Every structure is written in structure tokens, then in C-alpha cells.
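chain below, 145 aa
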Amino acid sequence: MHDDLKTFLEANVPTGKKKSKVQLGVADPKLGAAIQESVDIHCESGGLVLEVLRGIRCHFEKMIKGLTGPMAAKAQLGLGHSYSRAKVKFNVHRVDNMIIQSISLLDQLDKDINTFSMRIRYNRCLAFLHGFVWDAAYEYYFSVG
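prediction:
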């Protein structure tokens, strides 16, 4: 668990006898287990907690004065980008792999286009030969018969 979260919980959750009555609603059960282990606060994570969190997200703009819909959307987008940057660590070799794969894809497309065009040429030749052979057979049949 992060030190900032631990400090926040210790500062804002009641202590003493009131602490035993406090239950903290958490969406992620693993986070709840980590909080319970490090700060000794009972955590709940279930359907009721998820419904409460959904309601808070739905009406968050009305609860916070001065927050508008576009501002909340920008904040969520920024938080999402920050979270994804932290989760997906940048790897220099990964960029090279993408370039190599794109070059390979272009080469394969070039080969497929050449193969396709050769098949079209071959089929045109066969169609021409088909007509030529048919005409020759027709003439031969009437000249003999």
C-alpha cells in the first residue's frame, strides 16, 4: 500500500472506540486486504459497496461545487492516461518490434499483391487459350466431319 494512502486513512478515519465501528467500502478486495493488514481498518467489498460507488460516480458533479461535466471528463481522462502510463512501462525494444512487424507486414502485402496479379494474368491467358482451343477444335470438327 502506498504511503500517501496510509497517511490519508490515518488522518481521516476515527481512532479509538469509534475505529472499531468503522467499515471502509473498497471496490477492490485485494486493496481492502492490504488496508486491513497495514492500517487495521475493517474493509468491505461487495455488491452494496459497488452500487454506492456507482451512485457516487453518477452524481459526483452535483456533490462537488464548481465541478462541471467537461471538467470531470478531463480529469477522468487524465487519470486514465496517468494510470495506463504507470501500468505499461515503456520498453525501448517494444517500439523496434512494432517497426519490424510493420515492415514484415508490408513485405507480405507486396508478395500477396504480386501473387494475386500473376494469378489474374494466368487466368486471362487461360481464357484466351480456352477460346483459341475451342475455335481450333470447332474448325477441325467441321473440316473432318
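The chain has two domains: 3-87, 92-145. The chain has a mean pLDDT of 76.
thats it, cya
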